Amino acid sequence: MAIxxxxxxxxxxxxxxxxxxxxxxxxxxxxxxxxxxKPKMSHSEIMTIMVLFHxxxxxxxxxxxxxxxxxxxxxxxxxxxxxxxxTELMQKACLPLVLFLKHCCMGEGTGIAFIxxxxxxxxxxxxxxxxxTFDGIAAKGKSTMGWFYGFKLHLVVNDRGELLxxxxxxxxxxxxxxxxxxxxxxxxxxxxFADKGYISxxxxxxxxxxxxxxxxxxxxxxxxxLMSFNDKILLRKRSVIETIxxxxxxICQVEHSRHRSFGNFISNLVAGLVAYSFFEKKPxxxxxxxxxxxxxxx
Length: 298
Prior knowledge:
alpha/beta, globular
């Protein structure tokens, strides 16, 4: 993906402004003397490189850092470190990156939202029993594409393609479980559209009590339910969130089998979500209502 110099400056400016405010809050409540020697690269520089990796189309961070950042981005990052040191700094920048995602990259609720989960595989199926990196953390689950070993990324987006909420769970967790978490749904309002995997009478009543109307398709053995024509159209527009999941995996590289630690997995996934928030064009739908004044007969 081609990124202009202005876009790189915009990404660094937003991240650096957030890091400066975060550092002021930390210094105000910290105990003891600050370290005398400052690192060569700041958190904002580390976070910017992590985000740019997901926007440049490289397959692995090592090639991107050694072959691109150190060679072609000397003017943007004059004080660089070795790749081994950079990976250590990435772990330290994970928490500020998560806070930046939660506070600066989330969209606003519009009354229309879509929810879906996508599997994040950490290894191929034939290597499940020999996989040790995520032993005791990841789990074996099943999606519409078959069995996998890893995690699930639960996403909620609005009709503009902006992220509203996200959650990472082991692969064997039911898709409906995150909706029972208040912190996951506190930013949602209005109508929420999902696939048949979210069908649950108890869950619908729970969400309705929180001001959220859940819409799902129906199975063959279920009775048809009354739904307005606009809601039926919006239910068919779930391809928006499916397209976002595809972009996260194929453009932002949030899924690969080269992780060597859980911290590396989280930092890579969060950086991919931040990178998506800087997309100039996001999958979206045009939804307009027109009041004709005509009477509706049921």
